[in-house]
Amino acid sequence: MFNLVSYLETALPEPGSNATQGLTDDQKKCYKLIRSAELEALKRYSASEGPAQQKAKEDVVCARVAGGLVIHLHAKRTILGSQPVCQLTKEIATGSKSEVVYGIGKNQVGKQSYPHLPSNHPSRPSFDTLETMMADDMNQSGDDYRPARKKTLARDGYRCMVTGIFNEHSVFNNTELQSLVDAHTAIAEIQTCHILNQSTSQKLGEETDHSARISHAGSVFAILKLFGLEDLVEKLMKKNGVHGLDNLLSLCESLHTCFDKQKLWFDQTDKPNTYKVELAYPHHRKRVQFLQSGSGVYGVYG
Questions:
Q1: Can you give the residue ranges of the HNH nuclease domain (predicted)?
Q2: Where are the beta strands (DSSP E) in the chain?
Q3: Predicted confidence (pLDDT) per residue in 122-132, tens digit
Q4: Within this chain, do residues 179 and 249 fall inside the same structural domain, yes or no?
Q5: What's the whole-model pTM score?
Q6: pLDDT tens readout for residues 212-233
């Protein structure tokens, strides 16, 4: 990987280097524009001070992120398809050159993590069988966070989808789950994690800067559209759309934190609905599969 820290010289690989091999002519042209934008920002950084130098510094980082994005999207085209890198190339080629490069990089650099809502919920009745509790949770009414959390836990078998740890509250309220737990079975609070944070389309509170939240949401949606996910953007923009089951994961607290900090991610494999677990820390399962039972409930562990 290239160095994002130095502001004394260019960090992006030279056009024609191994990192840029295989780019199409349009992509090569786009990459040259990005590298020119980096060089231009470096010159401004060296020739200025104060706020102007800080702005130039931000532009340097944004240009490098945009360049890295072109290289990465091209390298991952067998998984992601060609549309993302082609769309990125088109946006840069039809824009105002450097400013578009900085803007695209800023969309990535400007991603924010907001505190997730508490996952505790009121007391609930006990159930003898797992099937009964799942049916009750999957039939929850409403489309806000709390019923969505119950549905997500039921879908995932009341376990963290990566570690297999059981949700403590669910075990306490279900006789069948209790029978599955022994001295070697871990239980803990399992949290409901948004793939796209609820702050993207949900009001966080009076103390939140509304304009900053809107800007963040626009950046996220622009990136999704870059990957050809206009239908997903439309779904997320609906009221409480961010609480849809296809945007929620069941994770233990430590992995929820890792996911929010982009230290946990899932790489697609050749096997349908199966992903390689990538984590900045070792000792976690390396593969997870999403399965659908006859009742329509998805199980993801085992």
A1: 160-266
A2: 166-167, 187-188, 190-194, 248-252, 264-268, 274-279, 287-289, 291-292, 298-299
A3: 445 556 666 77
A4: yes
A5: 0.52
A6: 555 555 667 777 777 777 887 7
